[in-house]
Specification:
binds adenosine-5'-diphosphate; two-stranded antiparallel ribbon; 7 strands; 10 helices
Length: 407
């Protein structure tokens, strides 16, 4: 007997058994029976025409239904277990109702149909899952972007709001100082005024950092390219760091490396700010008696500056985080704010600004450290790669230098 005739013959038994085993409740069974009828019709057509694609529309509709239920119930839905059961029940009925020879023929005809059904449904399900995960990721990304935008807006508003009262404090402190001649100022009052001065100076630095971060976030950081020599920038920092290196017994070495005397174009003020941040951090995170080295080398088209210290080091998983705004590590509640004291904390904006400045110069910054260890102090090395510009990268300024050269 032909396979198709056998399939038609066993169809009622198949439907009854599958509906009985796979659905619970009369109402459900009725509906499921219809679905099963369509499924076995398509299985039959697939065998008849030797092409299992006939089953695909039915599988697609089951996958869609499973995905909907899954979304409602928040659990993984897959039709693979259902297909597995249907295959088992089908082969079971074939074995019972056909003689061994016929059963072999029917099973051989059904096997490719079921294999195709498994492959098709698992591909469809995987595609749907990937699509859903990408959509979830996109939503999460959009939410993160919104969060970052509100953070950036908050920084910008807070910085500008703080600026006005700070200017008042600075102004009144200056007026107070000027209104009484120095020789008539009581010793205590002089100390209080110094306190106000240093407090408002630190506050202004923090506000300036907040403004810089919001400029970088909004791609508004203006870089004024001029001819620069790195050794001249380091000379300034060397003079600035002398008092603290004596106070904290730190051995700070500025090497005259190849490339430090090469002229390139850059924003001297901004680069000074960037290197100052890195070197101040090296000072802050190196215990008294430690060593800090500022060295470098020439590379084709670039100069690489390295700032290494014998400080507490940075764990590998934190080495990217520290370049994000507010990327300060450790316990914020133990925060003691200072620009130079050992482990003195800041708002965690310095390296975000530094990275923004280096990026705006077409350079790169990264750090290397074996890890964080306050006892053994493995140290950290910050690398800054800056392009050597033969010509000013800013077209307008380039024209200015060109006319100066000609005159
Ligand atoms: P902060 O205002 O806290 O100094 P930064 O952005 O300059 O912020 O630095 C972020 C964090 O990176 C610091 O809080 C510190 O945990 C870590 N860090 C930076 N430089 C070093 C260094 N040389 N050694 C160890 N940790 C460092």
């Amino acid at each position: 007997m032909r396979v198709i005739e056998l399939l038609i013959q066993i169809r009622p038994i198949l439907l009854k058994r599958a509906a009985h085993r796979l659905s619970r409740g009369e109402g459900l069974r009725e509906m499921f029976l219809e679905e099963l009828g369509r499924f076995y019709d398509l299985v039959q057509q697939s065998v008849e025409f030797g092409d299992p694609v006939w089953l695909e529309p039915q599988l697609t509709s089951w996958i869609q239904a499973a995905t909907l239920t899954e979304l409602e119930q928040q659990q993984e839905g897959s039709i693979t277990p259902l297909l597995n059961d249907l295959q088992m029940i089908t082969f079971e009925v074939v074995r019972e109702c056909c003689c061994p020879e016929e059963a072999l023929d029917v099973c051989s005809a059904l096997l490719p149909v079921f294999s195709h059904a498994f492959m098709f449904s698992s591909k469809q399900e995987t595609d749907r899952l990937v699509k859903r995960i990408s959509e979830d990721l996109e939503r999460a990304n959009a939410a993160l972007e919104r969060l970052d935008k509100s953070k950036s807006d908050f920084i910008s508003v807070a910085a500008h709001e703080l600026k006005t009262p700070l200017t008042l404090i600075e102004g009144y402190a200056a007026m107070l100082r000027e209104s009484v001649p120095l020789e008539f100022l009581e010793e205590g009052i002089e100390l209080y005024l110094k306190g106000i001065d240093s407090g408002s100076k630190r506050l202004r630095e923090i506000i300036d950092d907040m403004i810089d971060v919001s400029l970088i976030d909004n791609n508004l950081l203006a870089i004024r390219f001029q001819p620069i020599w790195l050794n001249r920038l380091f000379e300034v920092i060397q003079i600035e760091t002398q008092p603290i290196s004596q106070q904290r017994i730190l051995d700070i070495q500025f090497y005259d490396f190849e490339g430090s005397r090469v002229m390139t174009y850059g924003d001297g003020e901004r680069l000074l700010q960037a290197f100052r941040n890195i070197i101040n951090n090296a000072i802050k995170f190196t215990p008294d008696g430690g060593r800090i080295e500022i060295d470098g080398r020439m590379l084709p088209g670039f100069v690489e500056v390295t700032i290494s210290d014998t400080g507490i080091g940075i764990n590998p998983e934190d080495q990217a985080v520290i370049f994000e705004k507010f990327g300060r590590l450790g316990n914020v509640s133990l925060h003691s704010t200072s620009k130079t004291r050992f482990k003195g904390g800041g708002p965690g904006l310095g390296l975000a600004i530094t990275k923004g400045i280096i990026d705006a110069h077409g350079g790169t910054i990264w750090t290397e450290s074996p890890g964080y260890d306050e006892i053994n102090c493995p140290g950290s090395t910050f690398h800054v790669l800056l392009p050597i510009y033969q010509e000013c990268p800013d077209v307008k300024t380039a024209r200015l230098f060109e006319s100066l050269r000609q005159s």
